[in-house]
Amino acid sequence: MRLEVEHLSRSFGAVKAVSDVSFGLAAGRMLALIGPNGAGKSTCFQCINGQLRPDAGRVALEGRDITHASVASRARLGMGRTFQIAQVAASLTVRQHMALALAARDPAVWRSVTGRAQREALEQADAWLARFGLAGQAERLCAELPYPELKRVELASALALRPRVLLMDEPTAGMTRADRRALMALVRQEVEASGLAVLFTEHSMDVVFGFADAVLVLVRGRVIASGTPQEVAADPAVRAAYLGTAAETAA
Ligand code: ADP
Ligand code: MG
């Protein structure tokens, strides 16, 4: 297993945000974590990526216990996540942002600030942008990009670090159906090309049914069902607790 989560729990005061959550995620798989607002999805993510300490439980990456590892060492060990560019690098051009993301993986790229090395770094950035349908946007400021393109820059930047496991909390929030499917198709392409494993939270059932290999349903901090999207959608407990008509319209 790329990622193993065992008996993970985290409370905030009297609120048991995550309660005894266990699952495994293998290479080349996409796992969707779904559930109503407040179910504990983001808390679960933050316990896995190191932003929050779990009260109990264990997280392992490629068999190595990382429960108490820092965010930085998790990243070095192959755990990636998407960041919202709007918050950190809006004043960079798309090409600069991409080049920086690539340099974070390979700082040697920037050791020579002159001539050839820098030119190669920018060429590499342009090749990545082309792969993500962003060739025409290279000179634009991140702050000026339309939202769907910005989400693609965020994805490309996260993948530039070549993670083995990618965590995405609500990657398609606020996107149209066509845009969110285009974004997730790029993720899927990477999963198939490199064996990347992806854990993501998602509210849109068309994305869950279109892209997830497996689904975990979280309600009030607990896993109430898991399986293929079809299995989970047919589960009476899931229908009662959460999916209801949403599953019917997406199926
Ligand atoms: P989801 O992402 O599924 O919407 P969250 O993980 O954000 O759910 O929240 C789960 C529960 O934990 C909610 O009841 C929420 O109010 C609570 N919670 C989340 N983060 C905090 C925090 N930092 N302090 C206090 N309560 C929190
Ligand atoms: Mg959340």
Describe the structure in your own words.
Strands 6-7-8-3-9-10 form a 6-stranded mixed β-sheet, sandwiched between helices. Strands 2-1-4-5 form a 4-stranded antiparallel β-sheet, covered by helices on one side. It has helices at residues 41-49, 71-76, 85-88, 94-105, 115-131, 147-160, 177-194, 205-211, 229-234, 236-241, 245-250, and strands spanning 3-12, 15-25, 30-34, 56-61, 64-65, 79-81, 165-168, 197-201, 214-219, 222-227. The chain is α/β, with parallel strands linked by helices. It starts with a strand and ends with a helix. Residues 247-251 have low confidence and may be disordered. It has 11 helices and 10 strands. It is globular, with a radius of gyration of 19 Å. Bound molecules: adenosine-5'-diphosphate and magnesium ion (MG). The site of magnesium ion (MG) has 2 residues, from helix 1.
What is the secondary structure topology, with strand pairs?
Layout lengths: L2 E10 L2 E11 L4 E5 L6 H9 L6 E6 L2 E2 L5 H6 L2 E3 L3 H4 L5 H12 L9 H17 L15 H14 L4 E4 L8 H18 L2 E5 L3 H7 L2 E6 L2 E6 L1 H6 L1 H6 L3 H6 L1
Parallel strand pairs: 3-8, 3-9, 6-7, 7-8
Antiparallel strand pairs: 1-2, 1-4, 4-5, 9-10
Helix pairs in contact: 4-5, 4-6, 6-7, 7-8
Bound molecules: adenosine-5'-diphosphate (ADP) and magnesium ion.
Magnesium ion binds next to helix 1.
